[in-house]
């Protein structure tokens, strides 16, 4: 029997949360006094950042609440193979530091579309990539972070999902528009550094408590195959039964997460994410020189080993400790547990926090989740506003003052948030039980032509603007067909007698 601490927030939890907010707000106001007088200072932190905050910001911008929810949920569902995405990112960070960053720094650009215009000439590729980058921010970043953060608040406070989303938006707006975003990228990077420390420390505490509670690594191997709900035990279906390769990081070609697909097939989307995406590349461009940018990539690479232990293993432990909830297979039971008929894997991490963590430390872990969400959202907001103001707004207002660009950037962030909220029901209906699957799928549908455009642009002098543009258009056409096809159908719950009628 698992000893469960009351899930209601204690006064000490609330106190820790308030102290956290005051710390972050104060730090943001302090850092906003630096590098705020120009567009270069606002959007690239005056190109003066040390490698440690650069590496921490790369990690924090990548690890949002979607990772805590999604990686733990995939670990609870399928085992450790999902960590291959995190470990595989290490060598793509090296590609960023040693192949792409030197080119970007020599070009002295603010944004990735700026580089594309410089490399290929013309305007149509730059406009295309700007619009696609903003679309990907909506589909794979803002909406995912809001949804995953809302899952956590829903479990912690028993709020309605969309009420939780509104609360998160107000909180993000408080910090982003009214708080540390006043200092632009300088404030964002330094805040990322503080929040990375908070994330790692609190997640490490929960990991230790979880391992002690379950009895260690060997007990995870022994107990995970039997972590099934009582409804599964009383029927003959395989719904809700853990993956038989749960402790295998390298799986066969016909498995759910084949090693070849993770390390090579996913590499196409990974090159886009780590080397061509504005949110990530902007951090390295803020480094004081190339050496610090590369060292920042190394720091982020070392930190990418942590999710296996801080998120995936705790997700597996949550299923062992709470099999009737995490491992539910009956759609009606799942709906009672987590308001989703497709499964409840993604509540694994919130349940651990709320049921195992002692008071005050639980508040620190809640702060960790909010830190992950705020860090990710503020990074996306800053980078998206950079792209819009410099690559689109200045096309129409070539003589716009710096203050005008900063105001326009903040207004545009509000528009992005509104569109992202409208997309949340699609995420909930299609991949609610495996959030991390959704993130990887959308990137794989839309990112490959962008990867080809950047990679060939850096490595092959003969590629020209016309070939690059039509390659991007044809790639987007194929990817959008797959994207629309995938999310036109709702994922079917695993239930005896119910056939999945979606196209294979």
From TrEMBL:
One of its GO terms (cellular component) is plasma membrane. It is found in: Membrane. The keyword Transmembrane applies. This is Uncharacterized protein. GO terms for molecular function: D-glucose:sodium symporter activity. It is a multi-pass membrane protein. Gene3D superfamilies: Sodium/glucose cotransporter. Its main location: membrane. Belongs to the sodium:solute symporter (SSF) (TC 2.A.21) family.
